[in-house]
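Morning, I've got a small favour to ask if you have a moment. I owe you a coffee for this, so here goes:

…
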Amino acid sequence: MNLTDRVAVVTGGAGGIGAALARRFVAEGATAVVVADLDADAARAVADGIGAAAHAAALDVTDEEQVRALVADTERRYGRIDLFCANAGVATSGGVEVDDAGWERAWRVNVLSHVYAARAVLPAMLARGGGYLLHTCSAAGVLTAVGDAPYTTTKHAAVGFAEWLSVTYRDQGVRVSALCPQGVDTPMLAEGLAAGHLGARVIAASGAVLTPDQVADSVIAGLAEERFLILPHPEVAAYARRRAEDPDGWQSGLRKLVRRLRT
């Protein structure tokens, strides 16, 4: 996909990867980018900083009616949606002890929000014979987020759903990509480090933390090639191969890293 003259929606657009994507899409020639976020003021600040091609919208991605309304409003305003980026996500940090509310929140934000977006945008895309879905899934969706069971579980589900969409709708003109970065310099990572969360410490120890703008560079390249997996950290592909070829050895290495960080 070339972004010139395209209309895009970015959820979780008020900061981090979402804001970087919104800025980059406009720089690449998008006609309009809707910056959608639960924090309406922050979304407005991002849109104002981009200029006239950006439009801010308040959105709770876990509310399907709000997602449908946003899609309908965007289609009325701009005529279509070419690219929908389901980018909003949430980390939990914890294992089996995380309460049901924490698991439910992770499920609704990291998985169901993607389902709601697909339900809302697919009818028009299929009728038009084209469109693109970009789902931010995280490297945790193909590997493991040490120290965060709900995040790992839901991000695996997000990758699985994106793959299902790609298999089901690509021949009808709808492209799907799963964006799976590892460490990115975002508030989510900063908050995790400040709280001493194990997963954030593992990412920091890897020494491969990218900026959101670097992730946006990878997204533009991945969209141009219409790749299913967009991996801003190339090493994630090598890790995934190692994990598939030798799951016991892969887990042994992770346990060793966890033991070192805990001493």
